[in-house]
Inverse folding.
């Protein structure tokens, strides 16, 4: 670990840790003490028995005390690299070290229609269009389900979402399910697309996002999913999601120590279930309750502390950025998305999700997602390693041109001008050129880009027999709900 102000070039970028090595160690030791001395509650007997057999002590029925040795053993066997593949089985996201990947979030309760500007309830068509857009945007590396469709049975909406994601993109998928049975169904769909259980396990293109209440309390469904995915040798993202000031201390250090205890418990359980199973832990700071509004903001500046801690373990992490607390795609939405994406990238969060979120996670906007794609492109261009060579210094060209010449018609300019960054959405033409193209706002330009992407979907269709298998799983869930 270095001083907080030192820059380290890593993978075409920089790492700005906000915690020192000593601070990370202090938080880690506090998390160990929480697990060992205070204990955490687990609401799944199978998980409790796994820990008990490994040497954990259980009090008060389901309060589990995990000794530090179990944690250290799990940290030693948990993979430091998790590779997510595309639909065709090709490596697409080597999640490790200081690499950054970007994508949207899941299950927003509202959408802003890019055609009308209306805030309304989502429909399946919104998810389909969103996934097609994600597939077309070059800086979107993975997909999530965007929004919760209101035109289907919400109890099994996760199956509809998974069907759409598997059908309309070849990019890796991070899926969310509302219960354990949904997780099993979604994995079965992914296995059908991969061709077999073994193929999916060898080249996974899916990972399951698992939320538990906090570092203190681990709900039954979350633990069931964790153990199931570990048994399948499929990646999980384990996220203790406390609210600072409510379910964890209000101070960033205290809330982080408690949620990190939950992180470590997830690693321990995954490794007890299957040593070497892929687990990705949260690099997100615990959200805090804004005491003025009673809203949990998505764009607060308390970022980078969790990332530094996870980097000290060398484990893959799940992070977030590109979200805004604004209610529409406006100046606040652009500013907050840019600030948070810059902070998350320079903190080197591995999987950065929630691009496109508005209204503190309640609303999704395809226009905001397109804007975030442009911002990420800018950040990547900014953080590229700067090349200083004889060719880039161009002293010979400067000498030949001299003070009375110009560089516009030189071979050197022709060779290199395309290396500069050019925007897709940001406007940099003259005022009259902008007017000539319709005088559109950034949001209007984003809406036009979306329509162009929707007009020419890139992802090849699934084979008919695979489509039928996936549809059958959705129909099975529908029939079960009707009987329930």
């Amino acid at each position: 670990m270095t001083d907080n102000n030192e820059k380290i070039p890593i993978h075409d970028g920089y790492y700005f840790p906000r915690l020192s090595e000593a601070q990370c160690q202090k938080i880690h030791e506090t998390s160990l003490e929480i697990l060992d001395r205070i204990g955490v509650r687990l609401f799944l007997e199978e998980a409790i028995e796994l820990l008990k057999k490994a040497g954990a002590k259980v009090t008060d029925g389901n309060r589990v005390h995990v000794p530090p040795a179990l944690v250290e053993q799990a940290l030693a066997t948990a993979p430091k690299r998790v590779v997510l593949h595309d639909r065709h089985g090709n490596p697409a996201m080597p999640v490790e070290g200081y690499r950054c990947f970007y994508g949207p979030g899941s299950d927003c309760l509202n959408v802003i229609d890019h055609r009308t500007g209306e805030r309304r309830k989502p429909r399946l068509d919104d998810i389909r269009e969103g996934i097609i857009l994600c597939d077309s945007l070059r800086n979107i590396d993975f997909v999530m389900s965007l929004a919760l469709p209101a035109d289907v049975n919400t109890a099994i909406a996760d199956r509809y979402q998974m069907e759409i994601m598997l059908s309309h993109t070849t990019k890796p998928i991070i899926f969310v399910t509302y219960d354990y049975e949904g997780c099993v169904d979604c994995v079965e769909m992914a296995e059908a697309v991969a061709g077999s259980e073994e193929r999916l396990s060898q080249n996974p293109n899916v990972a399951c996002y698992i939320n538990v209440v906090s570092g203190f309390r681990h709900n039954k469904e979350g633990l069931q999913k964790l153990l199931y995915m570990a048994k399948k040798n499929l990646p999980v993202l384990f996220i203790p999601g406390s609210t600072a000031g409510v379910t964890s201390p209000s101070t960033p250090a205290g809330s982080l120590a408690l949620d990190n205890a939950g992180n470590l418990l997830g690693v321990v359980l995954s490794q007890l279930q299957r040593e070497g199973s892929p687990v990705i832990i949260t690099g997100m700071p615990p959200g805090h309750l804004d005491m003025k509004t009673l809203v949990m903001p998505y764009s607060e500046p308390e970022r980078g502390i969790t990332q530094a801690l996870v980097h000290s373990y060398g484990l893959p992490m799940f992070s977030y950025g590109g979200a805004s607390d604004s209610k529409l795609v406006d100046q606040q939405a652009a500013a907050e998305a840019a600030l948070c994406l810059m902070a998350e990238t320079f903190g080197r969060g591995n999987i950065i999700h929630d691009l496109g979120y508005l209204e503190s996670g309640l609303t999704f906007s395809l226009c905001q997602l397109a804007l975030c794609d442009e911002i990420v492109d800018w950040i990547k261009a900014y953080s590229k390693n700067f090349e200083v060579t004889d060719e880039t210094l161009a002293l010979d060209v400067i000498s030949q041109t001299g003070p009375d010449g110009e560089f516009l018609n030189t071979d050197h300019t022709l060779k290199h001008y395309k290396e500069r960054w050019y925007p897709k959405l940001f406007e940099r033409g003259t005022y009259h050129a902008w007017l000539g193209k319709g005088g559109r706002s950034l949001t209007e330009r984003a809406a036009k880009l979306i329509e162009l992407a929707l007009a020419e979907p890139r992802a090849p269709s699934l084979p008919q027999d695979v489509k039928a298998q996936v549809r059958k799983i959705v129909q099975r869930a529908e029939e079960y709900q009707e009987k329930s």
User: Anything to note?
Assistant: The chain has two domains: 1-386+421-484, 390-419. Residues 1-386+421-484 form a domain with the TIM Barrel fold (CATH 3.20.20.480). Residues 214 and 241 are 5 Å apart (CA to CA).
